[in-house]
Please model this.
Amino acid sequence: MGRKLLMVLLISLLFLISIKDFATSDSNNLHLSSEGIWLKGDMHMHTIFSDGAPNTVEDRVQQARKNGLDFIIITDHVTAETDRKTLIAYYNAVLKVDESNPDITVLWGFEWTYRWHILGYGLTPDDVELLSENIQEAITAINNAGGIAFFAHPDWSGASYNDLYVLKGLRGFEGFNYGHMESFIRPGGEWDALLMSGKNYIIIGGSDAHGSEEAGQWGTTFVYCPNATKKGIIEGLKRGCVYFSESIPINGSWRPVFRLGFTVNGTLMGQTIMLSSEEDEVTVNLQINLSIVEGKSFIHTISIISNGKIVKSIFGGTSSRFSSDILIPHVKVPSYFRVIANDTNGKYVVSNPIFIGKFAAKMENPANNILRGIYLFSFLLIAIASIAVIVKHLRNKSKFQPPST
Ligand SMILES: [Zn+2]
Ligand SMILES: [Zn+2]
Model:
């Protein structure tokens, strides 16, 4: 009986030792080889359900198709005055239009509108009806319901570093809104300060299209999604492999200026690479293409930013493509890398960060930490039980030993 139990415990222990990489390294990070698909979208727009008239949800889909988008998120204003009937009508309209337009994924979102504006994705009217007027309570409720929350247009709202720093559960904020690049994202700005203080915020961008603007106007958010479903898009946003490119009008439709490829040691945006102190250099692989060539513009400047400082500047000259491995020595731990580039017309592409960690607690996905906690707890429990069974076994053995003389 005791021997059988011991075998089971030892086998469990060996199993846990064999999967210990999961608990100690970044083995569940996204790499270039990970299965996924890049989708182009607009994260913020209004319809007749708030201040987007005359645009219906169907109008927004037609604009998205014209502007080459794969998905749009309708984010009409929601306040304490929004009644349940309106909320449900708006939800059903989005579902119906999504079903009748299989080439464009239409997600239902909302803009929680009080002193600050919060974009909420991945919820239903039942969840939204219960949202408090208190911003922290609203963000917590969005997360608890499985959704995701972004702070809208911090510049327009007059928000400061501290207004975003005090919030818990925010996935990030708008780096671009209504064709405007937020001052938060300039090198050494509030975003860098937030990242350095351990807030792993990512940026997204949206047209915030109201009456006369179009879905997909001014820019495009690129999201690397596990699949092209609504769930896959929300999951992609949670993971954070996301970048934003400004757009320009070409023959009556808006097209993103840039395509960006950005990895550090083969790991994608939004992920954390763990470095030991002996490894003090990383390889940044960067590919930037002007998707609109025709000799109209060239890459102007590419900046790699780490811990609030530009660690590498590359000047484009007269090229429309850049592709290179860049070795960055003396990497601080913890830190992060991000990229910002512009073309000769002054249009920008902005990456999200890739985090460099040594101490897992500070800059990591909380879900991984919970799994690691469960792992370590079971490891200890099984190890203690094994020792207890071994000790008991040895004691029993010595008890029944015949006297030596
Ligand atoms: Zn707003
Ligand atoms: Zn808005």
Confidence is low (pLDDT under 50) at residues 20-27, 359-364.
